[in-house]
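Weekly sync notes, structure subgroup
Attendees: PM, AL, DS (notes)

Item 1: joint prediction request from the bench team. They want all two components modeled as one assembly rather than separately. Inputs as received:
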Amino acid sequence: MTKGRPEPAFTAAQVSGILRRKLVFVSGKGGVGKTAVSQGIARALAETGLRTLWVCFEDPLQEPGVIRQHGSKLWYLNCSAELAFNEYASLKIGSGPLSKVFLKNKLVQYLAKAAPGIHELVLLGKVWYERTHYDRIVVDLPSTGHGLAMFQSTKNFSVLFTGGPVHRDAESMIETFGNPAESGHLILALPEEMPLQEALELSGFLHDLFPENPPGFLVNRLFPGVEQTRQSESEADQPDSWPTPLAKSAADYLHKRMILENYNLRLWRDRKIPFGVLEFVPPPDLSHSKESVSDVLSEELKRRGYL
Amino acid sequence: MNWRHIDEILDERRIIITCGTGGVGKTTLSAAIGVRAALQGRRTAVITIDPAKRLATSLGLEELGDRPANITSEIISAFRKAKAAGMTIPAQFKEPKIGRFDAIMPDARSNFRDFLRDLAPSAEIVERVMSNPIFQIFTKEFSGANEYMALERLQAIDSMREYDCIILDTPPSRNALAFLAAPKLLSQFFDERLIRWLVLPANSLVASGMKKALSILERLTGTGFMTNLFDFASTVFAVRVRFLANLEKTMDLLESPDVGFIMVATPTPETAPEVRHFIDILSKHRFNFDGVAVNRTLGYLEPVPSAAKSPKQQRPYEVLTALISREEKALSGVGSGATPLCAKLPELARDVHSVEDLFYVAMALDPDYRL
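Output from the run, pasted for the record:
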């Protein structure tokens, strides 16, 4: 076990600063583990006694729109655009017959479904609305492009709707998400080339949207042993100089993996980006234990001092 | 395990569409299938819609755009290098009749403009649509328009009949099928009965319920939006007939026996349910499912006797062993039943940055291939 202190290159301060905010948005390339890590964050927050809501958007494998309790202080919501739209409309028009006429109208249903950006707007609107009902909200954003598009359309709508309540709400949402006293953005990556690269692009886009609210960076699934591998060792033996892309044995694979991950992380190190790391925890064998990946990740987040 | 060889799929289909969630190596795999097709003498195009530019990186290119980048000569030289380095080369590739390999990354925004130009009855309509703020949001890089344009581009490239084989690498998504929802979403958008309501708001036949709904909508969104919406709807109305005809043509192509879908996945516990879901949806669409390509497998690594491990190596080995056993379970889950597997590829020790590495992956697509 690598119980020792993390190397100075990995820093806890920035990540834990982000995780202290009321609203935490976890973004990053597809496949980097946003769902498990954001659930781990929510779990760890709930364990400290904070009423915490974890939110994901339109997961087809989960029941939509229902807030379910997952612990004494933890709730999960699979946010559905359709339900959020209806909820928002009722909130604005009241739940009387007028709202029924509105929501049952074919054209309104059509616009709610097909008009670009409406989905994203009401989904984030739901998160924004729920923030008054919980101590903390942790949001599992869709992967890079789609996650960004959610913020982007909120901004677009604040421009597109030149008057009326939707305009005002969209403006307030943008303000909340861009305010470091209220919201934090955590960009998650893997120690692999494309996720690290995409994280940089993502942080650029986020900066354009929320210039006052710089994101935090976290590398997930760092292979155990990478932190102990000297960077000089990786410098001397660069992956592109290996004769074959394949590893010959388990020992060769591990050796190369240590070098490769360190080599890939140069992309962030060279730019002096402070980042946290989570060690690779393979999912526990679910047939033998009731522990889930998010349980293990919540322990790892605490062990690292991020929460 | 039920295998369906990639060469068999290449023989049967003119177009292969690869789907999968992010991080599974979909783009690299698509490029490798393309290399294999080119080595078999086919004129091949690999089209990617991945905004991350992974395809350019895998091919060792600085950039890639809407114009086809021909890298046939790089494949020939990768082949020669592999041969010179003593790499195992299967008999069918010993004297390859190399076709052609083009890589294309369509630009959704400019394609949409061209597409509209083709559809619209006048240039004035195109300009009106393009300057409408609703349309500008509509074509923002990441909306469903991007996905739809990819299919349009596919159809356009295919109809030129310049290629014997086209591989379409779909955008990564949480759900491997999000891509397939785009055309349906767009056809809803062009639903004639509903656009009519917007185009003819002053129609005396407009029911009182519709009037009420529109006035509430206006109260919520402000008048500026409603004006833009009516304007947008009327331009959409003008192109809808040809748009829908085009859409139908695209959907017909996707359903035809010329097109096959491959799902790319990594061996994790989520894979088997995802694959089942994928097959279900494909069959609902009447699309042809050709198999699952399992990527980034570790099972090929020779284990190390535990005595040989230093204390420092214990933890990494533990994790590696856990990953391999998880992989075995996942593979038996995916491979059980009738689901065909079309490839099982090893996790590489480095990222693919060159046609030489891609050449290796192209060989490894054959399940019997050993280095």
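Discussion: Chain B has 16 helices and eight strands.
Action: AL to compare against the crosslinking data before next sync.
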